[in-house]
Design a protein that fits this description.
The chain has 174 residues and is mainly alpha-helical. The chain has two domains: 1-30; 66-172, Orthogonal Bundle (Cytochrome Bc1 Complex, Chain D, domain 2), CATH 1.10.760. It has eight helices and no strands. It has helices at 3-30, 54-60, 67-71, 75-81, 121-124, 133-141, 143-146, 160-172. Heme C (HEC) binds next to helix 5.
């Protein structure tokens, strides 16, 4: 490369640096953070701000009801979707527990009742209850929303159709 070309390279690098510096300064002037007038989190025990839509919002934040979708759910599709579960679960009869318990017959038995698996205390608190499609719908939507403190660290299946297919698959395992 000739020294003339090197000059061009150096000049363009310098220009880029100056542009970056100036835009940084301008950005700082344009966007000045403002403190919120009210704290976003209220200390525990303080009265909750009156909001009549609060309950409605909570209801809307739950998963879609699963009943209508279950009618046309397909266990074969569910089995394919449930591949994401096999990192932690086995599905076959007598399969081993992994990070999570074996799931054969899970819809028949009580919650948190798989022998030889150390369930979380949160899950143990539900012993004696049974899994049903509505509970599984909530669970597979967001495990923490059904059982706070569960050690199933799975983000959930956002699509209701996927949950319906997986529930149909779980129900077929018996
Ligand atoms: C990252 C690991 C992980 C993934 C992925 C995962 N699970 Fe789990 N699962 C767990 C653990 C751990 C538990 C036990 C929870 C506890 O004790 O709190 C559990 C518990 C369960 C239970 C309750 C079992 C019982 O006997 O009551 C069901 C049902 C279940 N998982 C279904 C699924 C399905 C279906 C998927 C895939 C869509 C899935 N899980 C994905 C780790 C996982």
């Amino acid at each position: 490369m000739s020294s003339f070309e090197w000059n061009k390279v150096i000049a363009s690098v310098l220009t880029a640096m100056i542009v970056a510096m100036v835009s940084g300064i301008l950005a700082g002037k344009l966007v000045s953070p403002t403190e919120p007038a009210k704290p976003a989190f209220l200390p525990a025990g303080s009265p909750a701000p009156a909001s009549p839509s609060g309950a409605q919002q909570a209801a809307a934040a739950g998963p879609e009801p699963i009943g209508p979708l279950l009618a046309k759910a397909d266990p074969k599709k569910g089995e394919r979707i449930a591949k994401v579960c096999t990192a932690c679960h086995t599905f076959e009869k007598g399969g081993p527990n992994k990070i999570g318990p074996n799931l054969w017959g899970v819809t028949e038995e009580n919650m948190g009742a798989v022998p030889g698996f150390q369930f979380s205390a949160a899950m143990e608190a539900h012993k004696g209850e049974k899994w049903d499609p509505d509970k599984l719908n909530q669970w597979l939507w967001k495990p923490q929303s059904l059982i706070k403190g569960t050690k199933m660290t799975f983000a959930g299946l956002p699509k209701a159709e996927d949950r319906a297919n997986v529930i149909a698959y779980l129900e077929s395992l018996k």
